[in-house]
Amino acid sequence: MKIVLANPRGFCAGVQMAIDVVDQVIDVFEGEPVYVYHDIVHNTHVVNRFKSRGVVFVEDVNDIPEGEVVVFSAHGVSPAVRAKADARNLTSIDATCPLVTKVHSEAIRYARRGLQILLIGHRDHQEVIGTRGEAPDAIQVVETPEDIPDLVIHDSDRLVYLTQTTLSTDDAAIIIDALKQAFPNIKAPPSEDICYATTNRQHAVRQIAPKCDLTLVVGSTNSSNSKRLTEISATAGTPARLIDDVNGLEPGWFEDVETIMLTAGASAPEDLVAEICRWFVDRYDATLHVADVFEESVEFGLPKTLKDVMTERGIDHKDRLVRVQAPTISAKAYGADAEPMAVAES
């Protein structure tokens, strides 16, 4: 059996930053309670590991005692949530992914110009809820092309679309094409809203999955980008399974399967991937192969809200960056050495 490890996979810079923020806050406020509004990222292991360190996750800032510390998740929050936190005199630390903040800023700018905004995404996703909250009177959510006839449009020449950052690029393109057919003069954002990590991981699946018999995606069921990876594999003709960790593996899946693509959503820790590799090596004497599609090297600085708190407490934060690079393979961690695998562009 061959296990083909996709690169890139796993943590993106936004997720790594958000996790690092909570780590830093735990250290800065040592011995004090730390609250996080919504799951910091959509991965059950990441959340449970922080819970084991005493972090409390809430879905309403009213559940946080006045004057305590709250971290806003990577998905972003609406101004109403920020105002509620201020009213409770909370110390708010913003771990919103900078790429989500970009979409928020676009929504604010377009709304101020009097444009109607069509936000392509999943209306119940935290990112969409937060973005919509920036300009609730100007934004309508479009989940599928079937939503278009029900939109209330005042002037089809004063429309712009934005997208959730974790969408499937294929699905987004279908909706964008439908919007352009319905409203030929609709404006696009100045640059792509779907984040680099989402796009790269999806492209890796498109390239590698057709060469494999099965795709395994490591990620939680509430992770939008992880679910999109399984859909893209299926569209490419390779069945896919979404698993949280090694415990989700079913031996019956692997009958007559020789080559498995293994990837991970942008919020899935790499140690979960390594554990799955060891499972295959132990059970099937599998060989590991690395397929490099893109090289990522992205840096985000710590958020200003955290830097301000660290400065107040005399903690040096100068030149602190969150750098994300492709996972490296070690025989000890993964159970076997990995061979490189060529991936031809289609």
Would you mind describing this structure in some detail?
It is a single chain. By secondary structure, the chain is α/β, with parallel strands linked by helices. It has three domains: 2-12 and 196-297 and 327-340, Cobalt-precorrin-4 Transmethylase, domain 1; 13-98, Rossmann fold (3-Layer(aba) Sandwich), CATH 3.40.50; 99-182, 4-hydroxy-3-methylbut-2-enyl diphosphate reductase, catalytic domain (Cobalt-precorrin-4 Transmethylase, domain 1). The protein is 36% helix and 20% strand. It contains eleven helices and 15 strands. It has helices spanning 13-28, 44-51, 79-87, 98-112, 126-134, 169-182, 196-208, 224-235, 270-284, 304-312, 331-334; strands spanning 2-7, 34-37, 56-58, 69-72, 91-94, 116-120, 139-142, 159-163, 214-218, 240-243, 259-264, 287-292, 298-301, 321-324, 338-341. A six-stranded parallel beta sheet has the order 10-9-11-1-12-15, sandwiched between helices. A four-stranded parallel beta sheet has the order 3-2-4-5, with helices on both faces. Strand 2 (34-37), helix 2 and strand 3 (56-58) form a beta-alpha-beta unit. Helix 7 (196-208) runs parallel beside helix 8 (224-235). The radius of gyration is 21 Å and the shape is globular. The model has no long low-confidence stretch (mean pLDDT 93).
Give the topology, please.
Layout: E1 2-7, H1 13-28, E2 34-37, H2 44-51, E3 56-58, E4 69-72, H3 79-87, E5 91-94, H4 98-112, E6 116-120, H5 126-134, E7 139-142, E8 159-163, H6 169-182, H7 196-208, E9 214-218, H8 224-235, E10 240-243, E11 259-264, H9 270-284, E12 287-292, E13 298-301, H10 304-312, E14 321-324, H11 331-334, E15 338-341
Parallel strand pairs: 1-11, 1-12, 2-3, 2-4, 4-5, 6-7, 6-8, 9-10, 9-11, 12-15
Antiparallel strand pairs: 13-14
Helix pairs in contact: 4-5, 7-8
